[in-house]
What does this fold into?
Amino acid sequence: MKRLLSVCAVISGVLCGSSAISHAADKVEVLHWWTAGSEAEALNVLRQHLKTEGIGWQDMPVAGGGGDAAMTVLRARVTSGNPPTAAQMLGFDITDWAKAGQLASLDSVAGPEHWDAVIPRAIQRFSKYDGHWIGAPIDVHTTNWLWINKAALDAVGGKPPANWDQLIAVLDAMKAKGIIPLAQGGEDWQEATLFEAIVLGLGTDFYKKAFIELDPATLKGAKMAEAFTRLVKLRSYVDANFSGREWNLATAMVIQGKAGMQEMGDWAKGEFLRAGKTPWEDFVCIRFPGTQGAATFNADQFVMFKGGDKAGQIAMAKAVEDVEVQQDFNIIKGSVPARTDVPDTKFDACGKKGMADLKEADRNGTLFGSMAHGYAVPAAIKNAIYDVVTGVFNGDIDPEDGPSELADAVDLAK
Ligand code: GAL
It folds into this structure.
């Protein structure tokens, strides 16, 4: 037994445990928050891939974009000693679990399959801890997009807005035509997604200082006041029924032409494609006005827990990083692959733009982690920012008080 354990340790590091080499995986249980149509369809790529290897799939969906509800369920599962085989996770949540010593090492797959060479450094920062792989990224989303209904845009002149003033002009013109100008969902993470695009639009240094460095003077400064003023301005273009609305229902409003546009990460594109829509014919994908050249990213990753089913974990890690899975999954999901060696040939125009934008931002030093999706700050600070942004958006906090409330909330949460 002693010999077996030490061989085991050499072969596969932490992943190798009690039942590691005693059986092949028969199924994986996967916890995730991909409940919208396009999300479930994308996940099916992974499921089918595992099926061809004779591995079954036990689905554990926890509804709620952004993943906060999923993280609560996951915590309960891990605490009771019953983790799923793999869980979808983002950014600082991953490093926090790793710091707590709970995540299984994926080195036994990552090493031989050369993940170091194909996964971008900016993502590796969150997929590795203490030199060991603990996350398998499946996609890279960026959040600073604007999705516009093409017919609605054509009705007001057809020119995509390139800066703030043009955006306001287009929104006003749509309003005058009786179109709901801005489709917005009513959940804190969606409001935070809109807000981070506004902040990025006021300057890449500003975004970095505010949300990456959490610089107190920036958080409570005049530019932040401007950001809150812009947030409230955009709120005035949203219909009255937005409260509690899920992101994909807001996207559906744009798809159907009931609303003109939505600011959202590129998972929104998955819904357009699923509805049979074509980029630049039926809808327009542009960077949120003022943010072309920069990008805020969130990469969905799968993590595995110590004490979980080892064989299933290995099978899952391999499947997630399979080149074809990454291609097919991301085409449906709206994101771009987390591996740099996946060709862009089969991607649509928005997907190709997504890949090119990401490379450009990375080259220019203007690629930042998304605050709203856990890649800029740990959950406690993210949630503190959510509270203030939501408070202002919903009229519970005066926009003039936004900056000082934000600085105080962040300070308390640190
Ligand atoms: C994000 C996640 C995306 C997307 C979105 C809405 O947090 O990273 O993959 O699906 O939530 O559910």
User: Anything to note?
Assistant: The CA atoms of residues 33 and 62 lie 5 Å apart. The two ends are 46 Å apart (CA to CA). Residues 1-22 have pLDDT under 50 and may be disordered. The chain has 20 helices and 15 strands.
